[in-house]
Every structure is written in structure tokens, then in C-alpha cells.
Fold this sequence. Notes:
The chain is mainly α. It has 18 helices and no strands. The chain has helices at 2-9, 13-23, 30-42, 45-73, 75-95, 100-113, 117-128, 134-144, 146-162, 165-184, 187-191, 208-235, 241-260, 269-284, 290-301, 304-318, 321-353, 356-375. Helix 2 (13-23) runs antiparallel to helix 7 (117-128) and helix 4 (45-73) runs parallel beside helix 6 (100-113). The two termini are 31 Å apart.
Amino acid sequence: xxxxxxxxxxxxxxxxxxxxxxxxxxxxxxxxxFLIHVEQxxxxxxxxxxxxxxxxxxxxxxxxxxxxxxxRWGIRPxxxxxxxxxxxxxxxxxxxxxxxxxxxxxxxxxxxxxxxxQPAVRTIYPKLVPNRLLTPLxxxxxxxxxxxxxxxxxxxxxxxxxxxxxxxxxxAMAFLVGGGIxxxxxxxxxxxxxxxxxxxxxxxxxxxxxxxxxxLGLSLVACFSAVEAGIIGLFGEDGPEAGIILAIYAVGSLxxxxxxGHREIAPWSMTRRLALVTVGLVGAMFSPDFWWLSIMLFxxxxxxxxxxxxxxxxxxxxxxxxxxxxxxxxxxxxxLIGAGIGSAVAGICIDExxxxxxxxxxxxxxxxxxxxxxxxxxxxxxxxxxHGAPLPDTGPVETIS
Length: 401
């Protein structure tokens, strides 16, 4: 805890960490909010799935492009402009009675316009703290984001059921507006200037740490999506059991991130952390009992935030500062694709073989991720000794004094 307390004493860190967390809260709210809203309006889960899929697809496609534009237009103008378009578009989808095709089109536009908060903040982090505190900061970020997945779905469901689905969507937009304004008005955001990358769009994918982190992130998030679908399939949407188990899973990740986030990262760290994720999921395959699943998923969750920390730290340590935003965006796009793949595979498993087989699918995704990390570990940087900052650019000055 001494390390985290030291981190939070660094000027600007607490504001950046909390504000970006609030701005990213819609990620834990919008899917459920629109699933409930569209189903209530059009009485079709298939239509609701299309709308949610369009939002995710738009964000996945636009993420690398918009992150790259931060170097051209500046972080504040880009995030502010995109946030305004996204809020207007997504809010209109909830407020006005629109047909499904129109909702799909607007959802895609709203997803494309969703501001790339995550790539922006992870690009800023190396400019806020000394090298030795960078890995703990990435870990604290990865741990804190679990709050989104613990509180977001519960809050959204409560608002949608007790007040209305329109209000649930607007509540998510309120987080984006409030957190987004607090984030982009932070002095730390105004001081950072990202040099223009000399690579073409997508050129960063030629670097092993980026493509490896993108693919490992894809399969890892596919694992999470399969777990979520499997737990909901086992316990249903009406009772509290599914929400409690998924919250325990997220709490395990939060605990793991805080407990091990200060540890230095070696080339084999990713494999070790994914092994813990896999062990818990393999154990969860053997019984649908509530308490057994809670224990196994807590164990699995202990490795989740630490594993995500490695993904982001490896990119930070091996890419030029001008390339980090786009690199993080590709990882984010991979995770969005993984979420769709995991949900689709889990849905087929549930319909054809029963809900517990979705947990089996999640364990297989996790095993694939762990094996991928094992095979590619020699391309992972050794970050022991505090070597975690981006490589310098030979170009414009990065900060305003």
C-alpha cells in the first residue's frame, strides 16, 4: 500500500485516475441499458443484440483512427468533439421512438464517436510518474476499472427496472459528460503533446509487443464474455445469484491487481498470471453450485487485472511515445472483438449443450491465452529495474513547461 499511497501523492494522478474512470463508466452500462431498452420498445432480443453489436463495432473500427488523430488535433479538442457527438447520438437513440435499422445506424455512429479515453489516459501516464511507479500505476488503473464492471451493471439494471430504460441510458451519458469534462480539463491533459507518428495507420501492428498484446487481449476478453454468458445462463436474469458471482469475479481481479500490482514485470509474468486465471476457470467447469463457482471465479479473478497490467506495460516500454495511443487503441479494438466472439461462442454452447459448457468455453479461451503467452514470452520485454517508459521520439517537444 505504501507504493499506491506514493502514487496518489503525485500531482495530478488522483484526478486523472478518478476522472477517466468515471468517463469510462458507460462501458459497464450501455450494453445492458440498450439491451433492456430496445427489447422493451421492439420486443426482440435479436434487435437489441444488433444495436449493441453496432455500437461495439463502431468503437472497435474507429478506436485506432481516433487515437492517432490525437497527435494531429490534440487530446482535448478530439475527446471533447467526439464526446459531444457520441452523447447526442446515443441519447437520441433512447429518447426518440426509432426503428431498428435507424437504431443500428445511429449506434454505429455513436460507437465510432465514443471518445478514446483509455488510449489517451494510458498515453498520459508515463508523463505523470517516474519510471519505477509506472507499472504500479498501470496495475492500479487495471484494478480500478473493475469498479466499472462491479457497479455499472447493477446500477444500470436498478435504474432501468425502477425508473426506466431511457433514464438508464441517460445515466450512462451523464457519467461520460461529467467524467469526460473533469478529465479533459485536467492540467495534466493540457500539458501533454503527442508527436505525430511517422508510421502509416496500422504500422504499429508490425511490432511484436503490440500484435501479441492485441491477440492475447482478444482471447482473454473472449474468456470473460463467455463466463458472463455462462453464469447468466446458469442462474437466469431475475435472481441475484448471477450478479453476485460476477461481482465476486470482479472483486477477485481488484484484489489481485492491488496485491501484486507493485511487482516488477519479467518476460514470463504474463504466463504466470494467466495460469492462475485458467486454474480457476478449469475448477469452475466441474460444478454449477453457487458457492463453488464463487470460490473458483474469485481465484480466477486474482490473475485478471495483473494480466491486463502486463499487456499495457509491455506496450508502454517498447513503443515510441508517438505510437502508444494507437497501440493501446488496437488492443482495445481486439478486446471489443473478443467480447463479441466470446458471447457468440458461449451463446451457441448454452443453446446446444447447456449453460455450464459456456464455462468450459471460457476455460478453453483462457488456456489458449496462457499458451499464447508461453509461446511468445521471448518477445516480452524485461521490465525489472523500472524500465517501463515509452521510447523517446526525435520530434516536437512533448510537454508544455
